[in-house]
Write a structure and sequence with these properties.
The complex is a heterodimer of chains A (495) and B (160). With 495 residues, chain A is of the alpha+beta class. In chain A, 47% of the residues lie in helices and 26% in strands. Among the domains of chain A are: 5-88 and 135-165, no CATH class; 170-350, no CATH class; 360-407. Chain B is elongated and about 70 Å long. The chains are: A alpha+beta (495), B alpha+beta (160). Chains A and B meet through strand 19 and helix 16 of A and strand 4 of B.
Amino acid sequence: MSEPKRLHPAAMIFNIIQAIKQSVLGLLPLVIIALTNGVLLIVMVISAVVLLAGVILVSVLSWLRFTYQLEDDQLRIERGILIRKKRTISKHRIQSIDLSQNVIHRIFGLTKVQIETAGNDPATDAALSAVSMAEGQRLHDELKYKKQVPEELEADLEGQEEEQPALVQPDPIEETELPRRKITLKTLLIAGSTSASFGILLGIFGVVFSQAEALIPDEFYSDASRWVLSLGAQLMIVLGIVVVIFLWLLSILQTVIKNWDFTITRYEKELFITRGLLEKKQSTIPLKKIQAIGIKESIVHQPLGFVSVYVEIASGEVNQNEEMHTLIFPLMRKKDLTSFLAEILPEYSYETEQLVSLPKKALPYYLVRSAIIPLLATIGVGIFFLSYIWIPLIILIIALLYGFASYHTAGYVIDDRQITVQSRILGKDTAIIKQHRVQALARKQNPLHRKQALVNMDMAILNKMSGRHFIIRELRVEDGNKIADWYSYQKESSS
Amino acid sequence: MREQPNVRIAKDAIKAWQLTAHLFAIISFIITIAAIVLYFYVDFVPGWLVLAIAGVTIVEWVVTAFIIPKLRWRRWRYQIYDQEIYIQHGILIVTRTLVPMIRVQHVDTQQGPILKKYGLATLEISTAATTHQIPALLEEEASELRDQISELARVEQDDV
């Protein structure tokens, strides 16, 4: 086990695919221009072939050069065609090892191994893009679980493993005893049919449709639009509904594929999530990276009694395709939340019965903040186009309702070492934060606040981006002081 | 957070801020002069525009150089406890901030040419998620505080 190993040859395919993916996007405009010009087209084809050959060559070489080996307590990776890079990662520094498989991985029975180390520097992390499933499992167990085993035992185990290097699964009995939750198909379908991605898809469709004019030849476009217009209003409405339903189904499908079999398991020091139908993903969240827990109730989910649960984690790996926070459960009934937390994250508890809400004098601030722009718009429209005044008026009423809802939702509860902050940005968001996770506490007052004995409290925590601020606006001064006392280490000084 | 912190920053801060404001005002004065010159040589520059620019320049100069620095200094206070740093600032919106020592990641002192002229320095305290400044402390006081804070912050950090 100490000699250097190569990745599975399929790693070359991933390399090639990735290189093509990257270059296609950049070259697309050129291709479109080339399509209209015969000579340029030939040049393009030739250069594409050359480029492809180059990419294949580089992929093969980098595959040849990429080796990894397990040695003592270290994982050693060597790579680079011209510039040789060696990286050694100590076992003790590894925070999580995740195996994920996309479609190609699954065809070949392979897995990607993502190794994340402590610290916020993404450059210290490592990834093996394709190894066999058994090898992936072995690495995972080797680097992860064995470090808790005492050394004498470890030596023993190592001896055994030489003989049977295949799947070393943790004890199955132990596995079933661990607290875990799995999403049901029904909730998954509900999550899909009410997800926000539907709106996004609708938007994308709208953009594509409006750009279609430029892409489709004029004649065809005008023929088609004449045909559509000749269908009459009813048919067009039907067509529209069909498109919307189709997009809706697409968004359901997307959510179902992404969160298929979503399972969260609580280990002693980490959360472990597996999900995905086509692309199987594992992710490990070390408990000590969790900065806060959030419970989101979107405006669609709230009346139906559903919530989704996420965590804010401090981490260096920020991919563009990943959300700001990490979902630890896509959707569940709100009444199941307490038992979910008790089982998966007993360190945190969800209690909002004793929520301290805002004083009445805070309401005007919320109404003004949400309605000032629609109000100005209403006045403007009222002066210039009186007959259309109903449009801004409706918006104004919605804004006022929203302002009231925000006021009504806002509040906090202090419970021993944790604070629960409730707020609303469209959806209701309840965050549970531990005292020692708050990086700094600020209290802000403008002159009006001072006159009315109100304060804004701002709690900063760390997350994947540079930080997140939880702000409760227009609290009573006494409540602000309570939060400060809860936070302060210097009890005597601030009381 | 009921009482305000009890240590003021150096009184010379006012002078330093005033000097900065004067320097910035020079830019607006140059613009004003340019506008006046243009008014005499170019026909279509309206007179009211020049007056407006001149007015804004003078108001800006008076406010930033003679009013704000004093108010700002009066509000600026800080206090260093064993376990946390307490800061207050802001003229209209008064902000009081608590930063626990164990959350402090590093402390810097900074000094630009203007602060240097008055023997002052700015102390910058960073946590993992936020940055806080105490401007215009006496040089030796700033470096003393920097060492003191980094000493106090050296308490075992559990994580992040």
